[in-house]
Each structure stands twice: as structure tokens, then as C-alpha cells.
């Protein structure tokens, strides 16, 4: 067999060995491809941030605030750090903090929240509690509330919390309509329930915070977070808080 010709100027770099790629190299290449895919997916994920016209807050979380009739609402669109980490691929979590500076009681119900687009699309808030199921264990409050009474039908999740003593009926139709959206994607997780904004009543001077999980946002470029402010004894809102967001 004739020797291979030498390259001009020296022996040159060694040739790559012929034959199958070693298993360890195949695994390394596979991991690199997976990491690249995850980075590309993250780059393509929907990102919601306050619009330029919003009253933005400094710091992480993409938060903004608005106030109406003495009630201040802070909404952070990029605050989820729980399990699952890719929750935004299934629903749209927003951290909502409500300070009731009015002289009225403020009723918190998921049906009072929504995300709407200029085209008229509506993304509803999803109830994270399975009222007819069995509670495996109570969940501690994500942010300790102040002067807040939890809805009576949620009291088993919050032992030791003040329970609202007035009328607060369970709205079966709303839960039946929107809770199944979670179960279709194997949600909610325990972390989601623990961090959720519970339904109940915020007394004057009170505060409550937690995540509101909206239907997955897609195919829109702008959104408005809307919260209707309703007293427990009233059928119509006394005010509404609206916050503009844009979708990258």
C-alpha cells in the first residue's frame, strides 16, 4: 500500500479517525442539540410586558400598577418562578397584588378578572381549585394577607385564615366552564394552588396577593388586564382597573 501524500509545509493536522462516532461523543452532541432547541424555544416564547403608557414599576417581574376608587392593583406579568417552570406554555400566570384603600369591602372572584385584546378576544381567569375534589393538604399563603376573609368554600385549603362571614355563594357555572382547561394539560400543580390568589373579600385597608392564571395568550400583540371592583352586596362594579400590556 502506497503511503498517503504529505501536505506541503509539514505533516499537517492529524486526520479524524474513520468509523462510528464514539457513544460519549454522540451523547454530548445530543445534549448540545437539546440545549440549542431549548434556547430557541425560549427565544420564541410569548413575553408579556407593560405597555409604554402603563405606570411601570422598577425591578424584575415586568410589573405595572393602576388605581381606581382608592383600590390599587399591581400586576406582574413575568413573576412565575414555581413548578412547572414552563407554565407559560399552557396558561398565562400573572401575579396580582390588591391594596384596598377604599372605604368599601372588595369582593375577589376569578370572573372579575380578564385579559382582552383590541380585536375583542377575551382570555378568562381559570379557577385553580377543584372544589368537588379532595384536599390532600392545606396550602400556606403565598403572600400573607391583611384584613382579608377567604371565601367559605375555600376555607379547607386555608386553616387558620379568617373566613368571610357574609354571603359569598359558590359560582358553579364559572368553575364548571373554566376549571377543565387546567385538567386538559395535567394542571394545576400543588405549587400553582399554593401561590394562587384566593377568592374572598378584602376589607378596607386590607391587602391580598397571588397568581391569577389566565387562558393561554396567543395570536395577539396587545392586551388589557381588567379587574372589576365589586362589593359583596352589589351586583355591579363600583369601578374598574385597567392596565395595558404588549406581547413580544
Explain what you see.
Strands 1, 2, 3, 4, 5, 6, 7, 8, 9, 10, 11 and 12 form a 12-stranded antiparallel beta sheet that branches. The protein has one domain (46-247). With 248 residues, the chain is α+β, with helices and mostly antiparallel strands. It is built from 4 helices and 12 strands. It has helices at 23-44, 172-178, 180-183, 190-195, and strands spanning 48-50, 55-56, 63-68, 71-76, 91-100, 106-108, 113-116, 122-126, 146-150, 200-215, 222-229, 239-247.
Shape descriptor: globular
| Helix-strand sequence | HEEEEEEEEEHHHEEE
Individual helix count: 4
Distance between the termini: 63 Å
SSE blueprint and pairings:
Elements: H1 23-44, E1 48-50, E2 55-56, E3 63-68, E4 71-76, E5 91-100, E6 106-108, E7 113-116, E8 122-126, E9 146-150, H2 172-178, H3 180-183, H4 190-195, E10 200-215, E11 222-229, E12 239-247
Antiparallel strand pairs: 1-12, 2-3, 3-4, 4-5, 5-10, 6-10, 7-8, 7-11, 8-10, 9-10, 11-12
Amino acid at each position: 500500500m502506497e503511503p498517503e501524500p504529505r501536505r506541503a509545509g509539514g505533516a499537517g493536522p492529524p486526520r479524524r479517525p474513520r468509523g462510528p462516532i464514539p457513544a460519549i461523543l454522540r451523547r454530548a452532541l445530543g445534549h448540545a442539540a437539546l440545549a440549542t432547541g431549548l434556547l430557541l424555544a425560549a427565544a420564541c416564547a410569548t413575553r408579556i410586558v407593560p405597555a409604554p403608557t402603563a405606570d411601570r414599576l422598577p425591578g424584575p417581574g415586568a410589573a405595572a400598577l393602576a388605581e381606581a376608587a382608592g383600590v390599587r392593583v399591581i400586576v406582574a406579568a413575568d413573576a412565575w418562578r414555581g413548578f412547572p417552570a414552563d407554565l407559560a406554555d399552557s396558561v398565562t400566570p400573572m401575579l396580582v397584588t390588591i391594596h384596598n384603600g377604599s372605604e368599601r369591602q372588595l369582593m375577589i372572584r376569578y370572573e372579575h378578572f380578564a385579559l382582552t385584546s383590541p380585536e375583542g378576544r377575551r382570555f378568562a381567569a381559570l379557577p385553580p381549585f377543584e372544589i368537588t375534589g379532595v384536599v390532600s393538604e392545606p396550602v400556606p399563603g403565598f403572600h400573607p394577607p391583611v384584613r382579608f376573609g377567604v371565601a367559605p368554600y375555600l376555607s379547607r385549603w386555608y386553616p387558620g385564615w379568617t373566613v368571610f362571614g357574609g354571603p359569598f355563594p359558590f359560582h358553579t357555572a364559572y368553575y364548571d366552564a373554566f376549571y377543565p382547561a387546567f385538567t386538559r394539560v395535567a394542571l394545576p400543580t400543588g405549587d400553582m394552588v399554593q401561590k394562587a390568589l384566593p377568592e374572598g373579600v378584602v376589607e378596607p385597608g386590607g391587602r391580598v396577593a397571588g397568581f391569577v392564571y389566565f387562558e393561554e395568550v396567543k395570536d395577539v400583540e396587545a392586551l388589557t388586564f381588567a379587574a372589576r371592583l365589586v362589593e359583596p352586596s352589589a351586583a355591579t362594579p363600583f369601578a374598574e382597573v385597567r392596565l395595558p400590556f404588549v406581547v413580544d
